[in-house]
Design brief:
Number of domains: 1
CATH superfamily: Dynein light chain 2a, cytoplasmic
Strand order of the largest sheet: 2-1-5-4-3
Distance between the termini: 11 Å
Protein name: Dynein regulation protein LC7
Oligomer: single chain
Number of helices: 3
Mean pLDDT: 84
Pfam family, one: Robl_LC7
Low-confidence stretches: 1-6
CATH class: Alpha Beta
CATH topology: Beta-Lactamase
Structural class: alpha+beta
Order of helices and strands: HEEHEEEHEE
Radius of gyration: 14 Å
CATH architecture: 2-Layer Sandwich
Number of strands: 7
Length: about 140
């Protein structure tokens, strides 16, 4: 079962507060459902989670073109005018996504996200679903 959203608040706040320029942190399931968020608008978090489902699928497809890999997406970073988007695999069927401002320390963000996933990755899981039901 997915952990209660409240259980994630302090962990996501710690990531956000620890990296200057963080705008929003979202934990999502592989099928694009928001599990938890910190910062920003709840509707924006839902849109980010939905978009991430397609992005992780695309990244996985590209990863299969590299023969020495297992074909699984580990991290995606998108730099755009005005900021960065990060998405990292965070456990079975779960991802951690962050929107950050342009002046964010990109290396620090990646490291802090990785640290968070290592510390609590087992809790950042979402059981697979089929037809809207947990399998």
């Amino acid at each position: 079962m997915i952990q209660q959203r409240a259980n994630f608040d302090w962990m996501l706040k710690e990531l956000s507060d620890g990296v200057y320029g963080t705008r929003q942190v979202v934990v999502l399931s592989a099928d694009g459902l928001r599990i938890a968020r910190y910062g920003g608008d709840p509707d924006a978090a839902d849109r980010i989670a939905a978009a991430c489902a397609g992005l992780q699928s695309l990244a996985g497809a590209v990863a299969t073109e590299i023969p020495e890999t297992d074909g699984k997406m580990r991290m995606v970073i998108i730099e755009m005018e005005g900021g960065y988007f990060y998405m990292m695999a965070a456990g079975p069927n779960a991802y951690l996504a962050v929107l950050a401002e342009a002046h964010v320390d990109a290396g620090l963000m990646s490291a802090r996200m990785r640290d968070l996933v290592v510390r609590i990755g087992a809790h950042l899981t979402s059981p697979p679903r089929r037809n809207g039901q947990v399998v």
